[in-house]
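[Q] Does anyone have a clean structure-token version of this?
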Amino acid sequence: MIYVDADACPVKDEAERVATRHGLRIAFVSNGGLRPSRNPFVDMVIVPDGPDVADMWIAERAGPGDVVVTGDIPLAARCVTKGAKVLKHDGSPLTDGNVREALAMRDLMTDLRAADPFRQGGGRGFTKADRSRFLDALERAVRAAKGAS
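[A] Here you go.
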């Protein structure tokens, strides 16, 4: 199964293509606002509004043999702990070896933004190269997850 933290996810179409190619179910989990899919492999999961409700839904279900796509580092950490393969939107894997560092960096950046309210956030834009890296990484993660289940 592939779980996608779908709110603000820029690679939903790519994830759906990979899932379909492998005959895997994919769940797009959000608070709403997503266009429905006619793809029989796609589950559109709408959760109630509220902080981290979609994250909790995914974290309760993901485990070994699953792939999770998210930009949310705390969600990624919970899923990694449960044995799921986790990818960020640019294809970067989050693993036992790097998720704690990613959490620490997230916390540091939160503290820096709080200390300087005029600090402008936002990183670089999402590129075609990011999309391509994601497709390649998801393909590899799906194959590895299939082997683990």
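[Q] Thanks! Anything notable?
[A] The mean pLDDT is 87.
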